[in-house]
Amino acid sequence: MNKLLYVKKFYIFICLIIFPVLFSSAQEQDRIVTANEFLNYVSAQYGSINDYEAKIAITKGKEKMTGIIYYKTPSLLRINFDNPKEQVLVVDKEKLVIYIPKYRVIMQQKLKKKGGVSGAGMASKEGLKLLKKNYTVAYLESPDFVPLDDGSEEMVKKLKFVWRTADEGFRQLIMCVGEDNLIRRMICVTADYTEMQFDFTDIKTNEGIPDTRFEYDSPASANVFENFLFEAE
Asked: Residue 17 maps to which CATH number?
């Protein structure tokens, strides 16, 4: 049971990160003077993405999860994990469902109409405005492309977000935008300095993903934990 409690907390942490940030595409302008201007441009372009598919890797300490993520505006999300195998996270218009086959457990959350985890709250032009409102933003190293990692041939621009007040969920976020103008990595640091890294590769946008991709029939034999993030309205 202690192990299951740890898994539950782990997924709460994932949800707090995925839903506020998700991904965006940013087509670069010829001249970007400041980090705020760059963020404004990303926000202005955000609406051009109707749906996307990508490989995702989630790293927290020595733990690593991998899978395929699907997103469709305004609030449909699905991750099919291959590690852990057959694990699924789905968000439809009404609820969040996480299936953990190892424990035969379903964690289910009815989404609030306003605020809360739903949303893809930050996956929009308005969402990025909230980032700008609630965080200070600057280039991590320079306005130029820099290696994603030391010695890496992959070049990105890195933005650093720092909370304005301790009311925010994360004290710091680092966004890495690649030369293909897509977010390649998000690094999120909580108030207690817990760090989680999200890497996105093989991103495909505006593929016409059908709503049926986000339909999920949970196994009837699994135990269900309702409203594990917050109380339903």
From this structure: 2.50.20.10
Give the tens place of pLDDT for each residue, 175-191. Answer: 888 877 778 898 988 88
- The number of C-alpha atoms within 13 Å of 44 and in the hemisphere containing its C-beta is 9
Q: In whole angstroms, how far apart are CA 203 and each of 52, 72, 73, 167? A: 7, 13, 16, 32
Residue 126, C-beta contacts closer than 8 angstroms, at least 6 positions apart: none
List the domain range (segments joined by +) for residue 110. 2-226
At 118-149, the pLDDT tens digits run: 323 343 455 566 777 889 999 998 898 899 99
Domain-located, residue 209: yes
The total number of structural domains in the chain stands at: 1
**pTM here?**
0.79
| Domain-embedded: residue 20 | yes
Kindly report the length of the chain: 233
Q: Report DSSP state, residue 101.
A: T
